[in-house]
Amino acid sequence: MNLVSNTPSLAIPFVLATAIGYALATVGMKSVAGGTVPLGFAVAVFGFALAFLSEIILMRRFDVSIIYVSIIAAETVMVLVWAQYIGEGLGPRQLFGAALVVGGMVFVTW
Question: DSSP 3-state assignment of 92?
Answer without folding.
Answer: helix
